[in-house]
Amino acid sequence: METTNLKENGFYKLTWLQRIGFGSGDLAQNLIFQTVACYLMLYLTTVLKINAAFVSGLILTVRLIDCFWSPVVGRYIDNHNPKLGKYRTYLLYGGIPLTIAACLLMLPQVAEWSMGMKMVYATVSYTVLSMIYSVVNIPYGSIMASMTRDNNEVLILTSTRMVCANIGQIVVQAGFPIGLAICLHSTINWNQAIFMAIGTIPAFIILPLLPVLKNLLGKKGLYYTLLAIGFIGFAILFGIGKFGDVKSCTLLIQIAKIMTGVGLLVGSLMWALVPEVITESEYRTGNRPAATVNALAGVAFKAGFSIAGWITPLVMGWIGFNLASEDAALPTDPGAWFGVTSIFAVVGFVLLTLCFMGSKENITTTPDKPVSFKQMWQEFKASKCLQLVLGIFVVVFLASFISAPVNAYYTELGKYSETAQNAILWFTTIIPALLLIVVAFLIKKYPLTDERLDEMNREIEARNKK
Question: Which residues form the domain of 68?
């Protein structure tokens, strides 16, 4: 009887099959997203030899377009209710073109074209991929808020989702250079591959323990602890790179990289706050704008990514580290890049199909009146919680992605000039460490406690019964 009442009140208990089915969607998307985040800049500058300033501008422009496009997608999804599921539908209908666009992103024939045609193709292919990605990512994020109102279940869903996401991250970050070497029958640089991916390891230890750690440390205490460990890790990496010998400190470097992964894991945990913001909005307004809030969260997430992608090649070019002319950190054969990217894309589509079959929408609402862009802006202005969460998203993902493409250079730090070494250290250690401090300051201001969220959810359910 108690279980039935919980279901009637929206506090659904989920099976592990549902949780893993939902999480497979994040694994699928990360096979594509991490490829873009970690390797697209290197592909454009070292394989296609496109000027770093153009690449910087391209990444910024595409993300600015996405800042306008994502709210359009979120508004459309909130205002429609397809037969296959309000949110699940887009995993299939968006997944097919997403797979095709990802395969075409690094088409090998482009390397033989003129520089002007390379720039045009890079612009069109990246823009199309980014727009289609939003059509899949925004409704996917909304599914979590539609599965249950139970805070513990949301935490378990978040940890499951982020474990799967980090599996995708480690597969891409380590698997991409390994895949390139296999395609070319060359020696695998294991130190580089391990350094690229080892920061993901804490996710597989900490995320499954989130409910225990949260009870032990509290919500904010957990965040502060992770951020402090990450800051120390970045400090160790800086000290070795600046005053030591990277080649002779492999073990210590790997430990420090794991510590930085602990700090950056806070970015994954931020997705658990999105359902909280959706609940707070429903409590105030009576509407549950899941896709709209996820669209705004996606904009903030991509803003951090785009700022990182814009700053990194631009500033490194300014200070004399020319990515196109320096020794490349990875092989530059275009066929190998296309092959590895296509494998990730096809496997991703299979996983999106599994997510579609495994996710069950229990709480979905379509507004009585269509959500307007004015209302979206009003919601942003009215919700301090939303403003803080979006701010955290921008900063923490800027910290994550500003170092992603440059990490491939850290293990070979000694072979670059002093100017280049300083640039690599700034982007792989100093800037991310400073940004973690900003994240801690923003988290301190976040007002929603678990007790208050339970009160809101029960009041919402009581109102819905009237």
Answer: 19-461
Is 88 inside a domain boundary? yes
- Helix 373-382 × helix 273-285 angle, to 10°: 100
Integer Cα distance of 155 and 272 in angstroms: 6
* Domain count within the chain: 1
| DSSP-assigned states of every residue in 240-296 | HHHHS-GGG-HHHHHHHHHHHHHHHTHHHHGGGHHHHHHHHHHHHHS---HHHHHHH
Report if residue 7 sits inside a domain.
no
Residue (of 264, 260, 265, 269) closest to 159 by Cα position: 269
pLDDT (tens, 9 = 90+) of the chain, 466 residues, equals 333 344 545 677 888 888 898 989 999 999 998 898 888 988 998 899 998 888 888 988 887 888 778 878 887 887 778 888 888 889 988 999 999 999 999 999 999 999 999 999 999 999 999 999 989 988 887 787 778 777 778 778 877 888 898 899 889 988 999 999 999 998 888 888 888 888 888 888 887 887 788 889 988 899 999 999 999 999 999 999 999 989 889 999 999 999 999 999 888 777 778 888 888 888 887 777 676 777 777 778 778 877 887 887 777 777 767 666 666 778 889 999 999 999 999 999 999 999 988 887 777 666 555 556 666 677 777 778 888 888 998 898 888 888 877 888 898 888 888 888 888 899 899 999 999 999 999 999 988 887 888 888 888 878 877 6
Domain annotation covers residue 153: yes
The token pair that represents 392 in the structure block: 């955290």
**Beta-carbon count within 10 A of 3 CB:** 10
Q: Are 399 and 233 in contact (CB under 8 A)?
A: no
CA pair distance 41, 378, nearest whole angstrom: 36
Note whether residue 448 is domain-resident. Answer: yes
